[in-house]
Task: structure prediction
Amino acid sequence: MNEEADVSHDERAPRAQGRWARARQWLARARGSAGYERNTLEIIGKSALAASASWYVAHDLMAAQSPAFAPFSAVLIMQVTIYQSLLQALRYLGAVSAGVFVQAALGFLAGPDLLTFVLVALIAMTIGRWSRLGSQGSQVATAAFFAFSTYASATGNVQRIEQLGQILALVCIGCGIGVLINLTVLPPMRYRGAEEGIHALAHSQCDLMSDMYPALREGDMDEERTRHWRQRAATLGPLVTQARSALNTAVESRYYNPRRLLPGRWGEEDFSGYTELVDALERVTYQLSSMARTLDQWPQEEDGEECRAFLTDYAALLEALAEITRQFGEVEQRQLAQQSKGLCQAAEAAQEKRKALVENARETSLPLSDPSRPYGILLAEATRLMDEAQHSCDILLHSVREAAQTGELQEKTAR
Result:
């Protein structure tokens, strides 16, 4: 028995050490750079601070009968952006007010009996379905039930009115303290996350094309390799979603944020080209998926000197496009002036490769217009890819020119 216990203890030890090691790595990432781990610690710390301050006001200063309403409200509306905190605070306050008013109206009309509770529940849950309340819709019924309990335990109408009014006051205090702390204590600025989302997406596209073009150039397209390309292309979709989510969070982080007023941050969060860039990279993802599917379905009988020459030209274009996506993976707003020049040069080189591909293909006897053969389809995909890459480069160049006209670029370059 003792031996079995020792064995069980020994088996558990590596897992415990692994958990501690993972925890240390998590904390190291939180210290190292801004990201999910640091954001999580910030939210936890600010939520705890807001809850404590709300409890102190409600319990120690007001001596409220139900002081927990205040810290609960403060934690509930603590969001990753100030805009979301304000939005959720307004929605939560509206939901609680609706629930309290429904209970008060029916309670004073019919009294605190079972039939009144049923009516309160039906009306509160119906109001909670209102789309304007969003995720806070369920709080209508919650507030109504708490208000009904408070109403039923009160001894007179005056006390009932005071208690119901106190609930609303506590919710206002909690929401106010939560928003105030989010506004003043490490107010979130997530604009850097938009660049990181674009970097991850562009790097993945570059890696996929970088695996494709050497194989096309060497004519080494076995079934396992092309199937792997198709699977990797399918994984780009979630990266688009993540990049768009990071961009939306970044845009929201600007609203009502006092850090925008700090020296060295003027205009930094106003780069609107990221939205169009994410849209363009999303379309590149679609084209890459279609291209990978076409290559995965490549007929074995397609071979010969002209076919190999076509694939060699196609590989040259993919190599040039991979260089463009590689540079997209290094986009940084403070260096856009220099990066836009490099992107324009890379786009020009890719256009030359596309022209060579099309001209060489037309001089062959390959069936470019036959939809059952892969050549015409691949040419169409190459043209679309080139168009999206060129459009993305034009977006960045246009943003740089606009910044130069407004003086914003000079401001950033000087820092």
User: Anything to note?
Assistant: The two ends are 70 Å apart (CA to CA). The mean pLDDT is 81. The first helix runs from residue 2 to 32. Residues 35 and 193 are 8 Å apart (CA to CA).
